[in-house]
Amino acid sequence: MRAAFYEANGPARAVLRVEEIETPDPGVGEVRIRLHASGVNPSDVKSRGLRKLAFPRVIPHSDGAGVIEAVGAGIPTSRLGERVWIWNGQWQRPFGTAAEFIVLPAVQAVRLPDKIGFEQGATLGIPAMTAFHAVELARADDKTVVLVSGGAGSVSQFAIQFAKARGATVVTTISSPDKAAVAREAGADHCIDYRREDVGGRVAEITGRRGVDAILEMDLTANAKLIPAVLRPKGSVVIYGTGAEATIPAFFCLSNSVLLNFFLVYQLDALERDRAAAGINQALEQGKITARVGPTFPLAETAAAHEAVEQGTIGNVVVRTA
Which residues lie below 8 Å from residue 137, measured CB to CB, with a gap of 6+? Predict the structure, then answer.
């Protein structure tokens, strides 16, 4: 099979190669999927560029979509031919979805609704699961106001849609008119340009000075200073992204009984994962969420796909593997 891989850390064009390697066979409890699309996430790019190599050879990318074409022992043959989307393809494993095939435990292959294309399916694993779980932790409903940071981002786009599906009022921060348009298209009720507006002042106007009930935070390091200006007493901050260190307004959080709730999508437990997968598929089938596919690249141009993520894009970057 053809696969993109790297054997050393470094710039995309310096270390990523696309070559023929051995096609894997499924073992007990596993399936082999003929991949049609592979999603590229910021974590994939950071792992290749910065983090110490965990395996001698790494095929990157955790997300993807395709068709089950072989099953191992213990997996019913009825799954053959099933269209699926994948989560944690390269989490703590050397071989991810930037290839023509992948073998992984059958539970990590989730049925892809018939009306959803493979490129959309390849965007679900990290972004949609993160967003679904974050909205659940925020307990969003028709009585809550939620602030989603970075409303044009891949996770934020899904978070806005999941929160709106639960009836919440959604406020989001953006940095340009183009990004505001994308956030509004996802369903955001209010967009605040954090480069040109006073975020705290705008939130006060929107909420009658009450503050939002929850913040869904993609970068605590950059945004922790905003917590006192936007969050109501006994509100919560659901944190799915941060730099290495963050300065937290500790006295405000203590005196207002604020909940800081961190989670890493790769480490959801089985129940949380099942709830997220079922919730995502239900929302897709009901037309309550859509995946915004951004630039797409053939497998041979995987390095260019990584560069697109590094440069920043609107929409999920996808590599076509078939």
Answer: 236, 238, 261, 263
The span from the CA of 305 to the CA of 146, in Å, is 32
d(CA 54, CA 162): 34
Q: What is the CATH number of domain 127-266?
A: 3.40.50.720
In angstroms, the CA 289 to CA 131 distance is 11
The residue count of the chain comes to 322
Alpha carbons within 13 A on the beta-carbon side of 127: 34
Q: Which two tokens stand for residue 88?
A: 């944690």
Q: What is the value of pTM for the model shown?
A: 0.95
pLDDT-based confidence at 53, cuts 50/70/90? confident
Residues 6+ apart with CB under 8 A from 85: 63, 64, 65, 109, 110, 112, 121, 122, 124, 125
CATH class of the domain comprising 2-122+294-320: alpha beta
In DSSP terms, 261 is beta-bridged to: 238
Return the domain boundaries, the chain. Answer: 2-122+294-320, 127-266
Burial 125-148 (b: 16+ CB within 10 A, else e): bbbbbbbbbbbbbbebeeebbbbb
pLDDT, tens only, 184-230: 999 999 999 999 999 999 999 999 999 999 999 999 999 999 999 99
Q: Which two tokens stand for residue 44?
A: 């994939």
Measured CA to CA in angstroms, residue 105 lies from 147, 154, 196 at distances of 36, 26, 48
